[in-house]
Amino acid sequence: MKSTDNRGIALLITLSVVTIMVTVTVALNRRMRNSITDAAVSRDRIIMTHMIDSAVNMACVILAKDKREGPADSLQDDWADPEVVADYLAQIPFDDGEIRMLISDERARLQINALVSYPKGRDFNPAQRELWYRFFDLLLAQQDESADKFISEPIVPDMIINPVKDWLDFGDDDAISGLTGAEDNYYRDLDPPYSCRNGPIRQIAELMRIKGITPELFAGLDMGGAGIGAYITVSGMSETPDHKFTFDGKININTADVPVMAALLPAGQEFLAQAICDFRVEKASESYMHDLTSPTWYKDVPGCADVTINADLITTSSDIFHVEVGAILNDTSMRAAVLLEREKNKKIGKWQCKVLNWTFK
User: Fold this and answer.
1) Which residues contact 105 (CB under 8 A, 6 or more apart)?
2) What's the CATH code of the domain at 173?
3) What DSSP element (H or E) covers 18?
């Protein structure tokens, strides 16, 4: 009887040991697989980082070549053609994976910081204020009925422009702009409280901290179109002769989107914006038909002979570009947004690009 009991106990011990060994083996196996997977993902992310870096370098090559070919920047250029950009990227020697890149002109957007006249930083820039009023007036008028769900009261341009001006200007006193402005006291009473910038905006998302600019208005949620964030830039700072800074606010009419072009046009002529934008990319036999080097080329558009856009608001060139890069490798992806400034190297006399901002997403 004892022999049988001993055999039973031995069997139980053996089964327990086997169970423990199987459990430990499975756990170790799982840990090893996870380690291998983590190592593979880390390897892929390192490779994709190099892929993105190579793509940005290629963007610099494309932009430098473009500047050598002529002073004007337009949607007719190689950097603006996705197929041409893809051909450039195909020259990068990565055996596996895929790189995608989109280059856009920052001068195609409204410069938010130009709303105030710097370097003094106290008053509105009159021409920019009129431009911004037209932009918001047209954009808000185009909201569809679904936008009403997030609007507690009708929005008028001054409800946005005045708080933006107060956020940008150096003054922080009781002299708020109009009836809808907001200085530091307003933001200090919020929950949670924060301070008014009282200077140039550094990141575009900062707009959503300003009175009157909701996330919905910024991103276009429920607006039936893009939000204001798609048409605004914080870039465009330039140095004044006395080594201070300013923002000229000039927009490249060769690259501006329809809503921005409409705001540039005199009141009552905004309907011509689409025709002007279409004119820029008209082709015949695969070649572009129109020369866009003169800042008054828009007068050649049918119906625009008598149109006059404020010359202080427009340009036909740019040296600041936004580059969106994406890399895909083994079902893993990585994205980056890079801001490039094109400049001439004074020592060697050649055009090159420097990185102003680089953000991985």
Assistant:
1) 73, 80, 252, 255, 318, 320, 321, 322
2) 1.10.40.60
3) helix 2-69
**Is beta strand 251-252 parallel, antiparallel or unpaired with respect to 314-315?**
parallel
Q: How many CB atoms lie within 10 A of CB 41?
A: 14
DSSP string over 250-313: -EETTT--HHHHHHHSPTT-GGGHHHHHHHHT-EETTEE-----STTGGGGSTT-TT----GGG
Structural domain includes residue 272:
no
- Domain range for residue 218? 110-255
Residue 95 lies inside a defined structural domain of this protein: no
Number of domains forming the structure of the chain: 1
Write down the pTM of the prediction.
Answer: 0.84
Q: Cα(346)–Cα(349) distance, rounded to whole angstroms?
A: 5
In a domain? residue 223: yes
Which tens digit of pLDDT belongs to each residue from 85-141? 999 999 988 888 899 999 999 999 999 999 999 999 999 999 999 999 999 999 888
Q: How far apart are CA 163 and CA 85, in angstroms?
A: 40
Tens of pLDDT along 139-195?
888 764 444 544 456 678 999 999 999 999 997 666 788 888 999 999 999 999 999
Buried b vs exposed e over 124-145: b needs ≥16 C-beta within 10 Å? bbeebbebbbbbbbbbbeebee
Q: Where do we find the tokens 């290629």?
A: 58
142, part of any domain: yes
